[in-house]
Amino acid sequence: MSSTGFVPLSNNFGEQARRLANAALDLLFPPRCAVCRRVGSLLCQVCISDFVPVVGPVCQVCGEPQSTANLCARCTVQPRAFSSVRSGFAYSGTIRPAIHALKYNHKPGLAKPLAEALSRAITRTPSPDEYLCAVPLYSEREIARGYNQSKLLAHSLGAIWEIPVIAADAFCRMRNTTSQVELDYSARQANVEGAFKADPTLIEGHAILLIDDVCTTGATLHACAVALLAAGATSVNAITLARAV
């Protein structure tokens, strides 16, 4: 109590007011699962339980599922700048609409439950000087979307794994590359070649763990790794939420 006899307002008043407002909105408009529309949460446990884990042998470099744990045909003939890629789930079933909602339906709140699911699928013990780093969006695209979904995933994973996330201005996409969806691997490589730039003053001497939502061929991750290694990263590995199979 102050000397005037009045109890000072809590420094957390604004946060408390925000939580009360959100609670009131949840009562009036309860959250629904982005996949099945069940009431109760942005992503229900039923849909999460239907995610298909990546199990069995994978290529030891790019993480592509295959019949053996040897290098895949592509990694045998085309060196990758990254050391390894691992993905939590196959990009099929219920995770597809969940990721689509995160990226295109303005559902940033999905990043947390998706990161939690990924952290259960892939256990991670941080190495010394390791930093998480999200695959960047082009600045205009991030502004239009309102956020970078990979950056949201990286920050959620960083909190779970207790691994720091590299500063936002340490790594950027220099040009607005076209969509990779309809491109083969060679065209994807050409599309993203030289598209990324890293700041050596923030990257040099660190082991980088790249975070992205979906890995298809690994072309984008390769281009990111080239830029990060050129900036002095000691190594680049990658983890993605899902893997196209």
What is the CA-atom radius of gyration, in angstroms?
A: 20 Å
In the CATH scheme, the class would be Alpha Beta
Indicate the low-confidence ranges by residue numbers: 1-10
Mean pLDDT over the full residue set? 89
End-to-end Cα distance, whole Å, is 63 Å
Strand content: 5-15%
* CATH architectural group: 3-Layer(aba) Sandwich
Shape: globular
Q: Count the beta strands.
A: 6
Description of the molecule:
The protein has 245 residues and is α/β, with parallel strands linked by helices. It has a single domain (50-243), classed as Rossmann fold (3-Layer(aba) Sandwich), CATH 3.40.50. Helix content is 37%, strand content 15%. The protein contains 10 helices and 6 strands; from the N terminus they run H-H-H-E-H-H-E-H-H-E-H-E-H-E-H-E. Strands 1-6-5-2 form a 4-stranded parallel sheet. Helix 5 (111-121) packs across helix 7. The longest helix has 16 residues, at 13-28. The protein is globular and about 55 Å long. Mean pLDDT is 89; it is low at 1-10.
